[in-house]
Amino acid sequence: MIQVGDTLPSATLQEYSEVEGESCSIGPNPVDVRKAAAGKTIAIFGLPGAFTPTCSAKHVPGYVQNHEAFKAAGVDEIWCVSVNDAFVMGAWARDQKTGTKVRMLADGSGVFANATGLTLDLTARGMGVRSNRYSMLVKDGKVAALNVEEPGKFEVSDAETLLKQARG
Predict the structure, then answer these.
(1) pLDDT for 82-135, tens place per residue?
(2) What's the count of helices (H) and strands (E) in the chain, helices before strands?
(3) Would you name the residues annotated as active-site residues?
(4) Element (H, E) at 164
(5) DSSP per-residue codes, 37-53
(6) What would the CATH number be for the domain defined by 12-167?
(7) Whether 104 contacts 15, CB under 8 Å
(8) What are the residue boundaries of the Thioredoxin domain, all occurrences included (predicted)?
(9) Which of 112, 110, 43, 49 is nearest to 73 (CA)?
């Protein structure tokens, strides 16, 4: 499993964009994790799946609500990573009203989850191998703080915990 001090793995996530921007077209766009994290402080939180109860009711809303506090603490971006496709993550972004506050990044094949060792096998529940629930603070591509939940728990990966760590 990835640890504090480790560099983020080489992986490509997908981000669904509904509006054309400077460097992205409408539709799924690749996000090279290492390039996107270079020179930035990023709050990343991972979760088992879009539209799932805890993820939708608590995890994502906490980061959306604390966006300004994260910015004030020196965090450049907030990323939500889930083993879902970019279209699902785009629909979930609309549902959660993340706007430009949280980047909803799809790890459709679980490449990032596997590379970090942060996987959760939910095959018995019909969901396959997913991302574990976690949060991490990343500075210039290196993990500065890591909070991994026990299966079925939501106690240490919440926005408030990571915000305290970002503030130092």
Answers:
(1) 999 999 999 999 999 999 999 999 999 999 999 999 998 888 887 878 899 999
(2) 7, 9
(3) 55
(4) helix 159-167
(5) HTT-EEEEEEES-TT-H
(6) 3.40.30.10
(7) yes
(8) 2-168
(9) 43
